Amino acid sequence: MGAKILIVDDDAVTAEATADALKDVGYEVHRANNGPDRLKLADGLGPDLIILDVMMPDMDGYEVCRRLRQNPNTARLPIIMLTAQTSLEDKIKGLEVGTDDAADSSGFGNGV
């Protein structure tokens, strides 16, 4: 099996589509959709990459990213924000909180 990727997204359709695409090319995919699960799974799973949504209830992706960067176990994990928010300001905010790239959900490869 390939690298472990954790998808953090409360939208089941988006998470499932992303997971299916990644599984089809050989990645081991895990999903988390609620606040406590997001941080616990990232810490315990030891993924090789986290794909993180921004707009989620109770804890948005920016806060999840901040907390992941504060935890020594997850501070160096690569994080990509995949979001419906397409403004340059939103992508910059994601980079400022510690993501490694920001892409809008209209397609991969649209990062800054």
Would you kindly provide a brief summary of this structure?
With 112 residues, the protein is α/β, with parallel strands linked by helices. The protein contains four helices and five strands. It has a five-stranded parallel β-sheet with strand order 2-1-3-4-5, with helices on both faces.
**If you average the pLDDT, what whole number results?**
83
Structure classification: alpha/beta
Q: What is the count of helical runs?
A: 4
Helix content: 25-40%
Give the overall shape, derived from the CA principal axes: globular
| N- and C-termini, Cα separation | 30 Å
Major sheet summary line = 5 strands, parallel
Unreliable stretches: 107-112
Query: Biggest sheet: strands side by side, in what order?
Result: 2-1-3-4-5
What is Rg? 13 Å
Give me the strand/helix succession: EHEHEHEHE
Question: Can you give a write-up of this model?
Answer:
With 112 residues, the chain is α/β, with parallel strands linked by helices. The protein has helices at residues 12-24, 35-45, 61-70, 88-96, and strands at 4-8, 28-32, 49-52, 79-83, 101-104. Residues 107-112 have low confidence and may be disordered.
